[in-house]
Amino acid sequence: MVAPGALLRAYEMNAEAGGSGGVVAAGRSAAGSPTAGGFVPSALGTRAHWDAVYDRELQTFREYGDTGEIWFGEESMKRLIRWMQKHKIPLDASVLDIGTGNGVFLVELAKFGFSNITGIDYSASAIQLSGSILEKEGLSNINLKVEDFLNLSSKLSGFHVCIDKGTFDAISLNPDNAVEKRKQYVRSLSRVLEAKGFFLITSCNWTKEELLDEFSEGFELFEELPTPKFSFGGRSGNSVAALVFQKS
């Protein structure tokens, strides 16, 4: 499998190219392996960047009703919900969306009947935007919290399913000790996810093998989800990696 982050650079699917950051794609440094801190540090890994992004998106929503980007596209949401339906995840199972952004995935979960949903984000503007979109959709029973997943202040725990579409990618780009932040992410995940609970992650910066290494402590691969393939420079690979882990 070709490293998605390296190849996606060619597609300019990067917020620094003028978008709002719907997909966080990053190049590797000459140091090589991301497990050795090989991602090039970027503002995409900072709270200041995402506060600015969601400040703009909140203003756009207020003026034009535009909800903003869907991270990894609509198919990424359908892929995860299909998996939940296939494995008969109860509609009242507690579900946590880590780094919910504009909350569009929360809306989709609610439309499919899931009723015990929580979205967290460290950007207050993102949570404000999510709340406005949920209100527009007539959804009042979804929990929203301003929370830094690396430094949880509330007693979040006992979730049956945790979902990440791009948040771990962003953390990997933090200029301030990203390696330790990734380790803290895994510790936080272990804290909030119940035993035998499921963790669904979609990433454009990490390969399946790398994610297996990152989440090797306390988690086991349950299933790899099919994702789009493409060719570039004579090589082919998946544009994103989508894995389901189970807490051991």
Tell me the layout of helices and strands.
Layout: H1 4-8, H2 47-64, H3 74-86, E1 94-98, H4 104-111, E2 116-121, H5 124-136, E3 143-146, E4 159-165, H6 167-171, H7 178-192, E5 193-203, H8 208-214, E6 219-224, E7 229-232, E8 235-238, E9 241-247
Parallel strand pairs: 1-2, 1-4, 2-3, 4-5
Antiparallel strand pairs: 5-9, 6-9, 7-8
Helix pairs in contact: 2-5
Structure, explained:
- The chain has 248 residues and is an alpha/beta fold.
- It contains 8 helices and 9 strands.
- It has helices at residues 4-8, 47-64, 74-86, 104-111, 124-136, 167-171, 178-192, 208-214; strands at residues 94-98, 116-121, 143-146, 159-165, 193-203, 219-224, 229-232, 235-238, 241-247.
- The strands form 2 sheets. A 7-stranded mixed β-sheet has the order 3-2-1-4-5-9-6, sandwiched between helices.
- α5 links the parallel β2 and β3.
- α2 runs parallel beside α5.
- It is globular, with a radius of gyration of 17 Å.
- Residues 1-23 and 29-37 have low confidence and may be disordered.
Q: Average the pLDDT over all residues and give the rounded result.
A: 84
Number of helices: 8
The termini sit apart by 26 Å
User: What is the approximate shape?
Assistant: globular
> Which regions have little confidence, pLDDT < 50, spanning 5+ residues?
1-23, 29-37
Amount of beta strand: 15-25%
The structure class reads alpha/beta
Secondary-structure element order, N to C: HHHEHEHEEHHEHEEEE
Alpha carbon gyration radius: 17 Å
User: Order of strands across the biggest sheet?
Assistant: 3-2-1-4-5-9-6
The helical percent reads 25-40%
Report the count of strand segments.
9
Characterize the main sheet: 7 strands, mixed
